[in-house]
Each structure stands twice: as structure tokens, then as C-alpha cells.
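Pair request: fold both.
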Amino acid sequence: MSVDAPSSGASGALTSQLLANSGLMEAFGGHLQELVGSKSSYIDSMPQPMKNRIKALKNIQVQYTQLEAKFYEEVQALERKYTELHQPTYAKRRQIIAGDYEPTEEETVLGFDEEDDDEEDGDMDEEDAPTGAKIMDVDENGDPIEPEVEEGASAKVEKVKYDDTTTGIPEFWLQSLKNADVIAELIEEADEPLLRHLVDIELKHYEEPMGFDLIFHFSENPFINNKSLVKHYNVKIEVDDEAPFQFQGPQITGCTGCEVNWKKGHNLTVKTIKKKQKGKGKGQPGKTITKQVPANTFFSYFSPPAVPEADEETDEFTEEQEDDIAILGRDYEVASFIRDSLIPKAVLVFTGVEGGDDDDEGMGLPFLDGLDGEAGMQLQQQMAAGGGRPGGECAQQ
């Protein structure tokens, strides 16, 4: 990881601190102003034997970086191993959420103290509901009642009221997604009726080529024919011989979605608008035409743009490519959160313990770091600010 040089403001503050300390001033002598903020000239002024020693230290650093890459390869292998070991735990969680298994009294006793007002009250009031929780009507079996859905959109989703007849934990994954700040802003109101049918999110690792799938499993619903939607991410762990000090560990280098098989009249990725055209002649009424345009939806997540390539001559990106860079940057943030927090700690996200902006910092795999030249650096910087298996296939009914 590179360390940025101090800004002029930081250098000025450091100079002021040093000037105020007579002991440091005496130690640095008359070279203080030359040293602060002039790292390059300081190295250039060294005698050749010292420069040679620094080169030797850099070669040692390269050796460290190469071992670091092997460390991350072993970490990835451990992740694959323990993801498999966690499967029985995830299976039990899925059964409880779906209402297929009722925990025993012994299983509901926590081994630590926790204040839980909701359990004492019995019912979850709107004020007590987790952040963003939706309260909606349920039938006599405790199952959510489907709202009527209009073409290309959904009716307003009411908040869920839980009582003793409720089976499982309705809307567990929808609520968890909405509690995650990095994901919540991607979810439109029209997405919620379909996301209420999300029954599980699964992580699957690949060793060669390295990568992972995020698999969204759905119950029968009026929107899609798919049983699951898959998002695949390519990962590499590689030290660039030409720029070894840019190595940052595992890198997400690209992603592919899958085709969503929408049922007629329920495609959330498009919306129908009416537009009135001007009449051909004076006083003649214009025609009203209808057309479909892209709609904002969470499900655009399964149709990511390709990683853009800069112009060969200018080494720059177009405005449209920069938009794609921003989309990919956010896409990788979402993937990192789902992979590293939501799947392993779903109950903590559902209850609001995790999922805020503060939880996202420093999390997940580093972003794309595989393009050469200034354009590659530009791409990395923009994505930070915000091995390749064929694209994942969505499982059909």
C-alpha cells in the first residue's frame, strides 16, 4: 500500500511543531526546511552507497510483498474451507427464517445478557421496529398478504405487524438489505414486493479461476420465473512485477450478472411512459405515444456494465465510461458488504447492530487494480471513492 506524501498544510503544521521544539531544531540543524516536504530531493542528495542500500531495502520489500501474496492465497483457501463448514449453520438459519423449524426453548436462551424490549412487549410497534422496517397485514396463518401489483411497478408496501401466529421471520432478507446503508439506497419501493420473496443469500467460492458467487434465492412469486439470481465476481491475487508496491491483496477484477426471466407485465427494470407529440399542422392535435424507458431498481445489480478501457491515444475515459466506473465502484462495495457482513452476520444486520456507514469502512476486498497506465490509476481512484468464470446463470423454475 502506498503512503501519500503530506499535503502542504500537513507539512506546514509539522514545520511549526518542529520550530517550536528547540531540541528537535538542534538535532536537525540547518537541514529542517530541506527535509520537510522535500522527500525526493532528500533521497537524491544522498551519496551513492546510501542509495544502493535503499535499493537493497526495496528488493527486500518486494520479497515481503511476494510472501504477502502467498499469505492472502492461504487466507482465500481458509475462507473456502470455512464457508463449507458454515453450511449446516446457514441451513438451520434458513429453516428458522422460513418457518420450517421452530427453535426449542433451550435454543432461545442466550448465553449472555441482552436487553430485548421487543420480546418483553410481545408485539413490535412501529416505533420499536428496526430502522426501515415495514409493517404489513398478515393472513390467519401469519403469512404476509400480497399487495396488488401494477404493471411495471408495485403497490405501496405497508409495515408488517408480528404476533404470536406469525411463522418464521417474514421479510427477513428484505429488512436486512434495507438496514445496510450501502444497499438501502439502491432499493426502490417497486422492488420491495419481489424482495419479500427473497428466502436466502448464498456465498459460493471458486478456487480456479479464483472468484465467488452471490446467489439470491427466491420463493414462488408473480415477478420472475427464476428460482435464483446469480452475481459472479472475479478475484485475483497477483504481484505486478512492474509495480510490486501497488499490491493491496485480493482484487475484484470484474463481475458478471445473469438474465432475469421476468413474467409478463412485471419487469421492474423498465417503466412505461406516455408522451404527447406535437401535431403536424396548426391546430391539429398531437398523438400520444407510449414507450418503455429504464427504471431505477435494485435488480439492475444483475446487469453490471463491463470494465471500461481507456482510449489508447489519450489514455482517458469518456463521460459514459466514468459513469460505469462509478456504478462498478458501488457494485463492489455492495458485494463486499454482502460477502463479509450480511451473509455471515445476517441476524446482526436484521436487528440493526451492523449495517451502518461506519461498518463499511475498510471492509471487503480491495477494488479493481489491474489496468495499466494513468487510466488504470484513474479508474482505481474513482472506484475507491464511490479469475474469470463465464457469467453466472440464473436458475429457472
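--- second member of the pair ---
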Amino acid sequence: MEGIGNTMQKKAAELERMAEVLITGEQLRLRLHEEKVIKDRRHHLRTYPNCFVAKELIDWLIDHKEASDREIAIKLMQKLLDQSIIHHVCDEHKEFKDVKLFYRFRKDDGTFPLDNEAKVFMRGQRLFEKLMSTENTLVQTREEESVLFERTLLGCEFVDWLIQEGEASTREDAEQLCRRLLEHGIIQHVSNKHHFVDSNLLYQFRMNFRRRRRLLELLSERCRSIPESHDSPFCLRKQNTDSGNTSFLSVSPTKEIKIISAVRRSSMSSSCGSSGYYSSSPILSSSPPVLCNPKSVLKRQVNSEQLQSPGGPYMKRTFTIVGDAVGWGFVVRGSKPCHIQAVDPSGPAAAAGMKVCQFVVSVNGLNVLHLDYRTVSNLILTGPRTIVMEVMEEIDC
């Protein structure tokens, strides 16, 4: 079999870093649209559509904990400018300045450079979305050379799927497409020993396009220092990237920040439960071991009868949550009933008032008290962008 050389691995890593910048920039662009930071603006009797004010954006980044100070915020936006993701509306400034200048995302004015690398990346993202959005048995835990790997694709089955979906007309075309995806760091052989071959070798997607990126990751020299959970493409935003103790950020009922230590596990079949970080749009980790989600935040388990008991210490609340560019921003876990395990402080769920330790009663009118978190997760992920959730929370919480 043809092996993967060091040169190709380095190139794939460089392209993966470029892809991470593109994803991070796109997630930021969609968030800024949602919050009306990007809008049409007038200056000297001229209207500049879909732009933002540099000084106002820096304020926004600091307010939303995306940057610790103005200097860091400028460096972050300069990174996007250097990568041709944003530009000054008149292209008169090559530096991002903390003043009242108008800048715009190139995707909003059609000037984003679609070179070959970007086209391959966008196709890989589309294939991943299609693969993850359909019910199939392609992605499984499998064994190669006596080692178990999670979320794997059998090379020959992936080729079959590409032809079936109309992505390639022949097996040769499908194989060449997969080789380009591998060379661009989008997929990989599970142990990085082989190029893509139409065979029984196992491959994985390297990238999780659905993970919510933090802008501060743009300043990291490494492509990605935190391995993502293989058992779900929906991961919590992780902090303390330089320390060995990885932790998850969540919002407690008192709106304080809790750091919940992560635990490790070796496979999806582990008895340790996991949960999904809901996202509407995904690169999988390239090296085991993987992280599972944190231990339950519940102080004690509660059953459905206790929740619904008249005069019990629980009150019902209803949230209408509109998913943003990267999802709804919360995690469910548990079974009969499920509970809110974690909430992204900057996500739509937190804005609606959702908190950890709340129990999920219904999703879009369907009672889910008797369901486990996997079924509830599927209901949300396959439903509309706007979800209506009823929850019960402890009155003393």
C-alpha cells in the first residue's frame, strides 16, 4: 500500500490550519449577523452594506469573552484580515485598527477567493454534513490491526456511498476525490499509515465542522491542541488548552461559572454516558485517547413521578430557542428524565434562560420524560431550527 510521507502530512496539517481559520471566521460572521453587529451603514451620504465598525466589534468581542483585551481582539481580527476573510470596505487599510472604520466579511460581498484548496475544503464539509445528516451504517467503531477506532469509514463502502449519492460517477473518480480529501487534511487513515485506497482500510474525518470555535484558537501555533470526542460531533467548548487538565465550561443555575473536570474513556461502548453539543452546521480528532463529557451535574437523581408530584419542589419553565450559526448551545444527558448537563454561556440557550440541572419535560410539544438523552438529542437535531422546550427546575436551585 502507498504510505503517507512526511511532506504530505505537513501539507495536510497546514491546510487543516487554514480550514480551522475559515470555519472560525464563518462562525463569527454568522453570529455577528444574528446580533445585528453586521448591518448596512452610511458615511458621507454613501451606504456600505453588510459591514461592521472595527471599534464596536472590539467592544463586542470583549463583552462576549472572545478576547481578554483590545490588543488581543485586534490580533484576532488581523488574523482574519491576513487570511482574506475580512477586508476594509474600500480596501484602503491592510491593518485592523481600533477606530471607527468599516470592515466587511468577503463572503458578504462575494470577494472571497475560491481557490482550489477552498473548493476541496467546502466539498469535504458538504460531504461530512450529508453523511452525518442521514441514517446509515457507514460510520462505525471498527478494528484494524487489533486496535479499535471510533467513527470509522470502510474505504470501499465510502466509495460505494459517493457513487450512490451522485458525488462520483465511477469508483476511480470516487477514489481520486477521497485522495484529495486526505491530502487536504479532511480525512485520514486511522493510523496515518496509508493514502486513500478503495479497499477495506479504515478512514476517519479529521475535522468536526460543528464544533464551536473560540477566536483565541486562531492565535495558537498548533492546529488544535484539544482532542474532540469521537462519540459525538457535538462538543462542549473547552478551555485551558495549554494545561494537561482539560475541562468543560458550563453555566450553573446561579449564573456562576463551573469548571467540570473531564474524564477519559477508550471507546463508544464504554459505560460512561456522553451527550451532544447541539449544533446546526462539523473535523474529528486525529489521535486517541478521546474525551467523554463530564460527570453528571445533578446532586441526586430524580424520576418522572417525583417531578410531576403535586406540591413538589419543582416549577415548570418554557423556552423558545432559536439556533444560531453553530447550534443551540446546550447539552442533555441522563434518562427518564433527561437533564441539562451544560450550557454554552454565549449560546442561544443561555440567552433564553436555560440552566444546568433543569429536567427536560417536552420538546416541541412532545413529552420526553420517558426517553433517554440519545432519543431526545435526535428529536432536536432532526427538528426545526426553532425549538420550544419545557423544563422543570428545582425551586431552591
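Observation on the second member. The chain has a mean pLDDT of 76.
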